[in-house]
Amino acid sequence: MRERFVDEIKGICRAGKKLVKTIPKLAKTAMSEELKNAFSTHLEQTQGHESRTV
User: How far apart are CA 7 and CA 26, in angstroms?
Assistant: First the structure.
């Protein structure tokens, strides 16, 4: 059970790292300023999550 939990947490961490790389690309191609701001906010939140997992 513990092994499965650890594997799931590792997967979540990998997904967060991938998001940190992907969100700026999405923001760059966003058409509206509102969507760009939403991506920017989400990036800051994701980076905050990442900094707590290291």
Answer: 28
Range list of H helices, 1-54? 2-29, 33-53
d(CA 54, CA 24): 21
Q: What is the pTM of this model?
A: 0.74
Q: How far is CA 14 from CA 3, 20, 40, in A?
A: 17, 10, 20
Q: What is the pLDDT of residues 9-53, one digit of tens each?
A: 899 889 989 999 999 999 999 999 999 999 999 999 988 887 776
Dihedral sign for Cα 2, 54, 23, 33, please.
positive
